[in-house]
Design brief:
Helix content: 40-55%
Strand content: 5-15%
Distance between the termini: 23 Å
Strand order of the largest sheet: 2-3-1-4-5
CATH architecture: 3-Layer(aba) Sandwich
Structural class: alpha/beta
CATH class: Alpha Beta
Number of helices: 11
Number of strands: 5
Order of helices and strands: EHEHHEHHEHHHEHHH
Radius of gyration: 17 Å
Amino acid sequence: MAMRKRVFLWSHPRALSTVFELYFEARGDFDIVHEPFADVYWRGQSYEAVKRYVAEQCRENNVFIKDIAHHAFEWLVKDESFLTMFTHTFLVREPKKTVLSHYRVNPGFTQTEVGYEKLYLLFERVREVCGYTPIVVCADELEQAPRRVFQAYCYSLDIPFLARALSWKQGIRERWKAGTVWQKKVSQTTTVVYNLSRYPEVIELPNHLMHIYEYHLPYYRKLMEHKMPI
C-alpha cells in the first residue's frame, strides 16, 4: 500500500462490528483502536482528549478504528477537520435482530442507545463534509457470506483481501476494557458464525420493544439504500 490507511467503521451496537475488528486484527497489517469514544460516552473523558489519542494512533501504521456513532455524536458532527482525516465506512444490521440482541445484554437500554438515528445522521454528515458517499455494509450479509463481504470491503478500501484473516484466535482482548460483556459471544468464536438458532428468519419482538424497532426502522432503510454490493 502506497499510503497509510486510516479507516473508521461506524456502527450501532449489536451489529457484529467486533467481527470486523477481529478480521483486521488477524490481517496483521493494521493497528486496531477499539471504540475510543466510549470513554466520552461511558466514562466522562473529554472529547478533545480522546481525539488526541486517536490522532496519536494514526502517526505510524495503517489504523482500523471501530466505534459507535452516538458515543460522541454531538462533537463529531461539528468537527470537520477530524472527520476529513479518515476513510469512513458504516455497518448496519436488521433492526429486529439488533433490538433483541441489545435487550438480551442490556434490558434497560434506551431508544437512543439502539443507535440507528445517530448512525444515519453521522453518515449524512460525512457525505457533506468529506465529499463522498461512504460504503454501508449489511451485517446480515456478513453473517451469510463473510468472504464475499470482506472481499468487497477490502476492494472498496484499495487494500488486498487476505483470506487467512477470516480465522482468528479465541479470547478476550485487553483493549475491550470493561465492556467485555458486549464481546462475550464473539470472544468465543474463531470465524464468522451465522446465528440462525438465536435469530430465526422470522423474529417476533415483545410488544414493549416494538416502538423502539419502529422508530429506528426508517433510518435503517435509508442507510440500506447505500448498501455495498457483494
